[in-house]
Amino acid sequence: MEGKGLGGALMLRTRLYILKMLAKSLVITSLVATAVACLVYSQRYLDEIVERSFPVIMFFEIIVTLMPFLLVVAIPVTLSISIVFIYNKLITDSEILVLRAAGVSQFGLATPAIWLALLATGLSYLMTLYFVPLSYERFKDIETMVRSGQVEISLPARTFNTLERNLTVYYSEELEDGTMQSILVQDNRNRAEPITVIAESARVSPEDGEFRIFFWNGVLQRFDREQSQITSISFDQYVLTLNILANGRSLDDRPLEPREMGLAQVIAEQSNPDIGERQRNEATVEVYTRLVSPLLCFTVAMIAVTVMFVGEQVRTRFAKRVFAVGVCIAALLLLFQWLMALTRGNPMFGPLLPVAAILPGVIATIVLWLSNRRAPRPWRARRRDRLVQASGA
């Protein structure tokens, strides 16, 4: 019956107008929240990247590969923030009051938020089922390379570069073939016998799961702290090991976590007899996370619009409504995370995850529907007045 107050085309334009504002707000808040979370999360790797003089691009690649995973986590929160912010703006500007006076129902006002919630749910499913496994696998590869040293090392010339703790390299220039000229290395990893290497040229090369520096035509000085003696040795070629990969593994041998696998692989992992109970529980949680967590987008949207529109839209009560939205959504997300933690210990709690993700949204939808039926219809009052006037005439 909303068409009696507004034409069908005008009603559609109004909903698209609200949807456009909601979508812009969601994109901005999601990108900002995800970027901040990526920067905070990746700080733990920044010290190692700087300390070992790895290329700066490694840090930015870590941020990019983390974004899909953190975006899925952020969307339910940013979606609720966008709904509250935009509808508050509409209430403050009296646009909601005009729409209600024109005969738009509670569900009519909530329709743009529901559309956006469905789009966010679809985007979350695309992320959890496709992009998150790919990007997270790349992130774990980079993490392994950074922590093990299995990465191409870039050392600026005429700078004292720290490759590992207590290992410093200095050289004058680098040739086109990668050879470093006039190089000095101070190796203090062995405190009892620090080593100084001075050579005409050197090259960094990965070999047999290790990073090594090959020196040519130089002098090796070894200082014995206990006896306070310096021993000098001239050499034609000398090899210094920089770092050995953890457990001697390459990236190809690294076991994949459930989050890095495709959905079919994770489901198969649950029935794998060669893994322990903990790994099997992690696979179970990952299946529920991918299939259930995107539904939180629709649920938080329904909670937000229900709290915002149940009853009269009075400006003085807006702060209480925002507080109620925050409490409800925070409680829902905390409950979901708590059930995930319980499922990691006991898979019997797994079926409670879809209940926690769907049931609050269903309840909110029912409450909004009942409120929609009880809400006053200004167009009905106007129609009744016209009928009275017509009968009196």
How does this structure look, described?
The chain has 2 domains: 2-148 and 256-383, no CATH class; 161-208 and 210-243, no CATH class. The protein is 60% helix and 16% strand. The protein has 10 helices and 6 strands. Strands 1-2-3-4-5-6 form a 6-stranded antiparallel sheet. A hairpin with a 5-residue loop joins strand 2 and strand 3 (180-187). Helix 2 (57-92) runs antiparallel to helix 4 (106-148), helix 2 packs parallel to helix 7 and helix 2 (57-92) packs antiparallel against helix 8. The longest helix has 44 residues, at 8-51.
Can you summarize this structure?
By secondary structure, this protein is an alpha+beta fold.
Supply the key terms.
393 residues, alpha+beta, 2 domains, 6 strands, 16% strand
